[in-house]
Amino acid sequence: ESTRLVEKQREIDSSAVAYPNNIPLAFEEGKGATLRDADGNTFIDLFGGIGVLNVGHSNPYVMEAVHEQADRIVHTVDFPSEARLELIEKLDEIAPGELAGDNRVIFGGPTGSDAIEAAIKLAKYNTGGTGLIAFRGAYHGPTSGPMSLTSNKKFKGHYTPLLPDVVHAPYPYPFRQGKTEDEAVKDALEEVRAIVEDPYGGLANPAGIFAEPIQGEGGVVVPPEGFLEGLREIADDNALPLVFDEIQSGLGRSGEWFACEHYDVTPDAMTMAKALGGVGFPLSATMYREELDTWGPGDHAGTYRGHVVAMRAGTRAIEYIQAHDLLAHARELGEYLRARLREAGEENELLAEVRGKGLFIGAEFAEDGEPVDETVDEIQRYCYEHGVLVWTAGRHGSILRLLPPLVLTDELAETAMDVVCEAIEHATP
Ligand code: PMP
To answer: Is the ipTM of this complex over 0.90?
Structure first.
């Protein structure tokens, strides 16, 4: 039945729809960290809807509020509602560093891209600048603004010209750059400083610096200590807003509420989406320092920022993570998953590096330093055939990426990792 649905979809749906590794999957039901396909097969979900389902599929605590809210009202545009105010307060409670107690939140439309668009406009509005600094390997979304900040030409090659005045600096990625952590950080920061301060740096009138505190699509690239701190310094020295894209890394994924907390660096603005809608409801938000709240009514608009069902779901999801101490669970389970991956790597010389924080995990495959994507495809397919869903990342698809729901239990994690490790051990070296 899954095959029939996929074939039917291929026939009538847009050709732009991508099927990972051509795996014929159609889901009928999700519970916690498990999924059932249209043929009744059960899978352990280690990809969580690309990092959306932090509290698990159809989490009952969230769904209770969803049903109750949906029966009353779904859409309130920008008019106030308990659901909206409650979520703003909840986000303030978990806001990182100096943003706590000193922030405003603007909800976006349904996608992460909306939050990025808002952050771009906020930076331009406040600085009068036009130029944006982003990073190689960055992914910020499929609409024009975020695509401009995205570095991979595969995503934007057909759609230029995009925003003018975007310069991509290197993101420290010691493994791929063949550098030590210190060198990678130093070189990246020197470039950023040059782009901003050197008359030959390429950006005449900068408006802001945009970075993922851990790159997701780029390959779960965890920057070494010193990088985000350095960006903070450059932003401060030049009175530029520092914007962190926490769309994939935020809301508990990394074992802290936000990935920037691992580095003790607070951005001036921060984007959220994915897990913000609780169990997959579309919702995004940009949180920024109160001082940047200089714009007036209508300076950034949007029909869909009053999705009160999504807001209720978001608040309940945060409450659920708090009540079950899922940040600590993510940290512990993440250690276990990475340890298992490293162990499996001893049997497969192509597994070159295991990275990540919390349940934001990547395993990079390479041969003589060159990316190997076929091996990762093979692993993904083997896992699928044995009931475990995993994802990939990186510009060459050579990183096996795990983004399981934070509610993944120790038992399910063990069962799933038995399969993933078997897949790695069996994959063609
Ligand atoms: N930023 C980051 C870091 C992301 O990972 C993504 C999606 N993978 C986006 C932005 C874009 O979000 P959306 O697809 O909801 O527009």
So the answer is: yes
Ligand 1 site, residue 112, Cβ cutoff 6 A? yes
From ligand 1's centre to the CA of 145, what distance in Å?
12
Residue nearest to atom 11 of ligand 1 (CA): 141
Nearest CA to ligand 1 atom 13: 112
pLDDT along the chain (429 residues), means of 10: 88 86 89 96 96 97 98 94 97 98 94 98 98 98 97 91 96 97 98 95 94 98 98 98 98 98 98 97 97 96 92 98 98 98 96 98 96 94 96 94 98 98 90
Q: Whose CA is nearest to atom 5 of ligand 1?
A: 248
CA of 277 to the centre of ligand 1 (A): 14
Tell how far the Cα of 112 is from the centroid of ligand 1, in angstroms: 5
Does 210 sit in the ligand 1 pocket, CB within 6 Å?
no
Atom in ligand 1 nearest the alpha carbon of residue 284: 15
Query: CB of 139 closer than 6 A to ligand 1?
Result: yes
SS3 string of the chain? CHHHHHHHHHHHCCCCCCCHHHCCCCEEEEEECEEEECCCCEEEECCHHHHCCCCCECCHHHHHHHHHHHHHCCECCCCCCHHHHHHHHHHHHHCCHHHCCCCEEEECCCCHHHHHHHHHHHHHHHHCCCEEEEECCCCCCCCHHHHHHCCCHHHHHHHCCCCCCEEEECCCCHHHHCCCHHHHHHHHHHHHHHHHHCCCCCCCCEEEEEECCCECCCCCECCCCCHHHHHHHHHHHCCCCEEEECCCCCCCCCCCCCHHHHCCCCCCEEEECHHHHCCCCCCCEEEECHHHCCCCCCCCCCCCCCEHHHHHHHHHHHHHHHHCCHHHHHHHHHHHHHHHHHHHHCCCCCEEEEEEECCEEEEEEEECCEECHHHHHHHHHHHHHCCEECEEECCCCCEEEECCCCCCCHHHHHHHHHHHHHHHHHCCC
pTM as predicted: 0.97
- Find out whether the beta carbon of 286 lies less than 6 Å from any atom of ligand 1: no
